[in-house]
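FORM 7B: Structural annotation worksheet

SECTION A. Query
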Amino acid sequence: MAFKYCLLLGLFLVAAASMAMAAQAQMGLGGGLLALMRIQGTVFCSANVTDVPINNATASPVFPNAVVQLQCGAGNTVVAGATTDGFGLFSIVLDPLQNVLSTLLTGCTLVVKTPLSTCNANLPAAGRLLSSLQFVGNTLVGPFNVSNVVPAGFQFLPNLN
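SECTION B. Predicted structure
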């Protein structure tokens, strides 16, 4: 009787361990780390790409309260969005179970939906700022392995609305 009990307990532990490892593999939790993707950057109030800061010298003011959308695919589906703070900074956090980094980098763009005339009345009301994405590395934040992505550089497209 004791032998059957030990055998049954052993089989149960093996099954539980197998299910835990399968769940961990499906969730991408290698090494017990959770994964995230973070897109962050600064939006400047300028239609001229050359006005963005170089070597920490700010030529253009930042663009506060601008709506930034992550659009993906042929239909430009809005996947996520954020609003810039008073310093023009935005941050979008994505779940890598729903978004693949390679697809994000090749099939998605950041679009600033707020017209430039909102931050400066002398700038055009039509058109939008658009940027492709660039992977800059991974960082560990507590238990999270964060894939860091930044805008490759916003460009003004006068015909984009």
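SECTION C. Observations
The chain has two domains: 1-32, 34-157. Helices lie at 2-26, 101-107.

SECTION D. Sign-off
Analyst initials: ____
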